[in-house]
Design a protein that fits this description.
- Belongs to the class-III pyridoxal-phosphate-dependent aminotransferase family.
- GO terms for molecular function: adenosylmethionine-8-amino-7-oxononanoate transaminase activity; pyridoxal phosphate binding.
- By secondary structure, the protein is of the alpha/beta class.
- It folds into 2 domains: 134 residues, Aspartate Aminotransferase, domain 1 (Alpha-Beta Complex); 272 residues, Aspartate Aminotransferase, domain 2 (3-Layer(aba) Sandwich).
- The chain has 15 helices and 15 strands.
- The strands form 3 sheets. Strands 4-10-9-8-7-5-6 form a 7-stranded mixed β-sheet, with helices on both faces.
- The longest helix is centred in the N-terminal third of the chain and has 18 residues.
- It is globular and about 65 Å long.
- The two termini are 40 Å apart.
- The chain binds pyridoxal-5'-phosphate.
Length: 436
């Protein structure tokens, strides 16, 4: 028996992440292999991967150059740590990272987006302390935000269901409102209304004392919360308020990084530069876990004031800069560059937008949102929140399209290799369920 192409056991030993295990086991969707934009299940059902893994397989699946680079690296140097010693490929990978990010000079490697977020929040706290402003302890996030599932990211996150099981988290977290306004429904790309919602940060400054606020973190485009592009002028206003009050601005680019909007990072797309940003996922095309925090020289240099033998930052992971992940990163960047993956995203974004907005008037559709090659069809609630989303997800899977239900929004973030005809196929499958 080939255990990878059949149901291997009673599926009970693996406690699955973010999964209703009894519901899953009633009708398990088990994927045996993947190539390009397609998954094939253990029973031979072919499904278009409409979510690019989980917003991470930007170059599609099974990219031979990346596979080969990982194999070669495993044979050459499988592992060496980076605590007061190093290995060349981590430095090479870091150079490739900062080359993509104008104005950012350093990257701190992690193994995931959640670790990148918690690392960025800790850097923000320690940065202020290093500069004699250790009273800056408040971290600001937003309602509907997803910043992973570690303690810091959950604290600044704004999805109550993810937090409710865990009680008090980081005690000094504050939240701004989200930017989901009824008047923005069915916007094409960035909505017109809502720049004023950035003033919530000023209100927090006024209520708490601006001198106590360390950082604000924002996804440039809300992702897991349901794909909400920022209102025009919103991110610019956030930057202004941070500058006026000595607050660090962190963008969480875990899903917008590596071309999702057609530029390497969303900050470049919007023309708003944060002080730090997180990335992960597309960093290795999801082949080996890898994330990172990008900082400006101004942020990192604040840590170089102590004795030369003292670590700059008392923080790091055994696998920070893992050789296999670094090999995967370098090969992934080569593929993105040589195959024009980001450029393809920019070219396909208008086609994607038109495809999605054909559902604006479909029965049971509450909203449609899009930017770059990300988007969501938001269904009207039927029964409990999430019931309509789950039903549509199941129907779409059966018809050959995988989407990600976020409540009643069907979130999509396909591989950035998508062609016009593949967008057409996705549109046809969506139509077969949404406009039968
Ligand atoms: C914006 C954002 N931040 C952080 C994370 C967490 O990343 P990971 O699942 O790799 O820990 C995610 C995951 O989707 C994300 O969308």
């Amino acid at each position: 028996m080939n255990e990878q192409t059949s149901v291997p056991n009673d599926l009970d030993s693996f406690w699955m992440p973010f999964t209703a295990s009894r519901w899953f086991k009633a009708n398990p969707r088990l994927i045996a292999k993947a190539k390009g934009i397609h998954y094939t299940t253990v029973d031979g059902h072919e499904v278009i991967d409409g979510t690019g893994g989980l917003w991470c397989c930007n170059a599609g699946h099974g990219v031979d150059r990346i596979t080969k680079a990982i194999q070669d690296q495993a044979a050459r140097l499988d592992f060496a740590h980076s605590f007061n010693q190093g290995h060349p490929i981590a430095f090479q990978a870091a150079s490739r990272m900062v080359d993509l990010a104008d104005g950012f000079d350093h990257v701190f490697f992690t193994n995931s987006g959640s670790e990148a977020v918690d690392t960025a929040l800790k850097i923000a706290l320690a940065y202020h302390q290093a500069r004699g402003e250790g009273q800056r302890r408040i971290l600001v996030g937003r309602a509907k935000a997803y910043h992973g599932i570690n303690f810091g990211g959950l604290s600044v996150g704004g999805l109550g269901l993810n937090k409710g099981q865990f009680g008090t988290l980081y005690p000094s977290a504050q939240h701004m409102r989200h930017t989901d306004l009824p008047e923005n429904r069915f916007s094409h790309g960035q909505p017109e209304h809502g720049a004023h919602l950035a003033d919530d940060l000023q209100a927090i400054c006024d209520a708490q004392g601006a001198h106590t606020i360390a950082a604000v973190i924002a996804e440039p485009v809300f992702g897991a919360g349901g794909v909400y592009p920022p209102p025009k002028g919103y991110l610019e206003r956030l930057r202004e308020i941070c500058d006026a009050n000595g607050i660090l601005l962190i963008f969480d680019e875990v899903i917008t990084g590596f071309g999702r909007l057609g530029t390497p990072f969303a900050s470049q797309y919007f023309g708003v530069k944060p002080d730090m940003f997180t990335a992960a996922k597309g960093m290795t095309n999801a082949t080996v876990p890898m994330g990172g925090v990008f900082t400006t020289a101004a942020v990192r240099d604040a840590f170089l004031q102590g004795p030369e033998t003292m670590p700059d930052l008392f923080h790091g992971y055994t696998y920070s800069g893992h050789p296999l992940a670094c090999a995967a990163t370098i090969a992934t960047m080569d593929v993105y560059r040589d195959e024009g993956i980001f450029e393809n995203c920019a070219a396909m974004a208008p086609v994607w937008q038109d495809m999605l907005h054909q559902f604006d008037n479909a029965p049971g559709v509450h909203d449609v949102r899009n930017l770059g090659l990300m988007g969501a069809v938001h269904l009207e609630q039927k029964g409990a929140v999430g019931d309509a989303g789950r039903a549509a997800y199941e129907a779409l899977w059966d018809k050959g399209l995988s989407v990600r239900p976020a409540g009643d929004s069907l979130a999509m973030s396909p591989p950035l290799t998508l062609t016009e005809s593949e967008i057409g196929q996705i549109g046809d499958i969506l139509a077969s369920v949404l406009k039968p």
